[in-house]
Amino acid sequence: MQKNILYSLDKWIGECNEPRSVNPIWNVTNNVTAKLIANICIGEEASQHEDVIHSFAVLSDDMNIFFLLPPFLSIIHQKLHEFITVFNWV
Predict the structure, then answer these.
(1) What is the pLDDT along the chain (90 residues), one digit of tens a residue?
(2) Which domain of life is it from (predicted)?
(3) How far apart are CA 42 and CA 34, in angstroms?
(4) Which long-range contacts does 56-59 make (Cβ < 8 Å, 24+ apart)?
(5) Rounded Cα–Cα distance for residues 17 and 35 (Å)
(6) Which string of b and e fits 20-45 if b means at least 16 CB within 10 Å?
(7) Where are the domains positioned within the chain?
(8) Full 3-state SS string of the chain
(9) With contact defined as beta carbons under 8 Å apart, do 4 and 39 qualify?
């Protein structure tokens, strides 16, 4: 995992010999974690392809909306919000 994190950070940020600003930090962190998730889910050899990493990045970006929902359904029942966030995308 550490090797993949260092590889992804080097790819997205690069050498920082000079001060550098990373404006879309969400995209950088999303692509770094997508490489890790792809490596865990489908294996090290298949996660070397850029289109696979991009697919996992898009998937994790689309899934974040379910985890960022406020727990407004907890008023009805405590587990209802958890049920919606976990099983809505299946």
Answers:
(1) 778 777 777 777 777 677 766 667 777 788 888 888 888 888 888 888 889 888 988 888 887 776 666 667 677 777 777 777 676 554
(2) Eukaryota
(3) 12
(4) 57/30, 57/31, 59/34
(5) 25
(6) eeeeeeeebebbbbbbbbbbeeeeee
(7) 2-65
(8) CHHHHHHHHHHHCCCCCCCCCCCCHHHHHHHHHHHHHHHHHHCCCHHHCHHHHHHHHHHHHHHHHHHCCCCHHHHCCCCHHHHHHHHCCC
(9) yes
Instruction: Return the structure tokens found at 11.
Output: 């790819």
CA distance 90 to 86: 8
The one-letter code for the residue type at 87 is F
CB 35 within 8 A of CB 7: yes
Residue 62 · residue 74 · CB < 8 Å: no
